[in-house]
């Protein structure tokens, strides 16, 4: 099979982690006899620097013509004072919209080799395996109007949280369908005691849930869900939530399992899937070669599974990551006295070797 991939390395640690993910993708393709065609395009701060547009038309066209897109990360302090449409993050929001990627799947899985990395006690975190299903194209991140108006000292800022029934229904169906393949539990997270958007959300999710009688559905306010996430993380199966709540809870889930650098994501629903680690461009460690590439590498596994339906190949990448961690490989975010840190490239190499071993064992 020909895999035509567009890579958007982006900013900060984005290019560093994307490079390792692409190397792993090449080794999987080689091991399983697939042809791989990879092309890099600009997004975010890198695109702003090159052509003063965080998402050039050429990037959009290439992504739409590809079979899947891998993104590193966007964001750079150099553009912090730019107007919204000329910030790197505008490129990210727009590519999600251009690709129609309304469903953002963010698994948070605890690796047993990382018991010393979670801030939680092993008996609390052991067995954690949740899937956060975040609505990606609605809510306050996209709602209009949005503005900052007025004179300095008396300015007023406005954002609009907006959700239509059809937007809620389509993401709810993604969550229920996923739950059917997992432990058949959906927790819908909202703030229905305060927000109209959440009241509509709860009503629609309850209605959709009736089509899935085997799935146990529950509702929770986001503040109490945040507390439960650290108290009893193993109880979560599928978490269904809107854009901003999902953004926040998934970073928290990263902390629970040991590091944000471990978390992968798939943004699907449109004609072309977008795969990216959950973390941002991490300007504090960019350029040092110490970023954890596992979130990006596991995003490649999600790409193989969701865009190409290559379950064996996806499982091969996931077990290679697990094997590398079991052998003691740790980037600085996971390092401890007993496990000194290795570089981004060394971690990539460890996974690559494990991919080759796993692929030859399964051949
Ligand atoms: P961040 O995720 O970049 O970093 C948060 C913390 O986690 C930092 O201390 C960082 O060093 C650490 N970290 C993140 N990824 C890591 C990795 N792979 N390995 C080791 N450590 C890692 O979030 P932030 O600092 O709030 O934001 C920085 C920039 O990234 C901002 O411009 C923000 O807008 C952008 N951002 C982009 C995305 C995206 O591209 N999807 C997501 C979130 C934030």
Task: Describe the overall structure.
This protein has 363 residues and is an alpha/beta fold. The chain folds into two domains: 1-103 and 260-363, Isopropylmalate Dehydrogenase, CATH 3.40.718.10; 118-257, 3-Layer(aba) Sandwich (Isopropylmalate Dehydrogenase). It is 42% helix and 18% strand. The protein has twelve helices and twelve strands. A hairpin with a 6-residue loop joins strand 6 and strand 7 (156-158). It starts with a strand and ends with a helix. The model has no long low-confidence stretch (mean pLDDT 96). The structure holds nicotinamide-adenine-dinucleotide. Nicotinamide-adenine-dinucleotide (NAD) is lined by residues 13, 17, 73-75, 89, 92, 260-261, 276, 279-285, 291-292, 295, 333.
Provide key terms for this protein.
2 domains, 18% strand, alpha/beta, 12 strands, ten-stranded mixed beta sheet, Isopropylmalate Dehydrogenase, binds nicotinamide-adenine-dinucleotide, 363 residues, globular, two-stranded antiparallel ribbon, 12 helices
Instruction: Report the end-to-end length measured between terminal Cα atoms.
Output: 17 Å
CATH superfamily of the largest domain: Isopropylmalate Dehydrogenase
What oligomeric arrangement do these chains adopt? single chain
Q: What is the CATH architecture annotation of the largest domain?
A: 3-Layer(aba) Sandwich
Can you count the beta strands?
A: 12
What is the count of helical runs?
12
Shape: globular
Structural class: alpha/beta
């Amino acid at each position: 099979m020909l895999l035509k991939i567009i890579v958007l390395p982006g900013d900060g640690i984005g290019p560093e982690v994307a490079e390792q993910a692409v190397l792993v993708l090449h080794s999987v393709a080689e091991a399983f006899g697939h042809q791989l065609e990879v092309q890099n395009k600009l997004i975010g701060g890198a695109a702003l620097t090159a052509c003063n547009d965080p998402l050039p038309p050429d990037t959009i066209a290439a992504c739409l013509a590809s079979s899947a897109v891998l993104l590193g990360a966007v964001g750079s302090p150099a553009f912090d004072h730019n107007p919204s449409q000329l910030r790197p993050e505008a490129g990210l929001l727009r590519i999600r919209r251009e690709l129609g990627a309304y469903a953002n799947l963010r698994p948070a899985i605890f690796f047993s080799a990382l018991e010393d990395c979670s801030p939680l006690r092993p008996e609390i975190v052991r067995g954690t395996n949740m899937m956060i299903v975040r609505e990606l194209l609605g809510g306050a991140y996209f709602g209009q109007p949005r503005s900052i108006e007025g004179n300095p000292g008396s300015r007023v800022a406005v954002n609009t949280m907006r959700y239509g029934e059809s937007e809620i229904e389509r993401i709810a169906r993604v969550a229920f369908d996923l739950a059917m393949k997992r432990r058949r539990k959906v927790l819908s997270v909202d703030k229905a005691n305060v927000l109209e958007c959440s009241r509509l959300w709860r009503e629609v999710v309850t209605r959709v849930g009736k089509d899935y009688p085997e799935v146990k559905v529950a509702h929770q306010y986001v503040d109490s869900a945040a507390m439960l996430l650290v108290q009893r993380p193993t109880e979560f199966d599928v978490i269904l939530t809107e854009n901003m709540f999902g953004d926040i809870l998934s970073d928290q889930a990263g902390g629970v399992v040991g590091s944000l650098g471990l978390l992968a994501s798939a943004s699907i629903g449109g004609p072309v899937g977008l795969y990216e680690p959950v973390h941002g461009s991490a300007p504090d460690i960019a350029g040092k070669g110490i970023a954890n590439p596992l979130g990006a590498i596991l995003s490649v596994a999600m790409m193989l599974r969701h865009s190409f339906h290559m379950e064996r190949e996806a499982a091969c990448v996931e077990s290679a990551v697990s094997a590398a961690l079991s052998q003691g490989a740790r980037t600085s975010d996971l390092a401890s006295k007993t496990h000194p840190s290795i570089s981004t490239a060394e971690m990539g190499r460890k996974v690559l070797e494990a991919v080759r071993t796993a692929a030859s064992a399964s051949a």
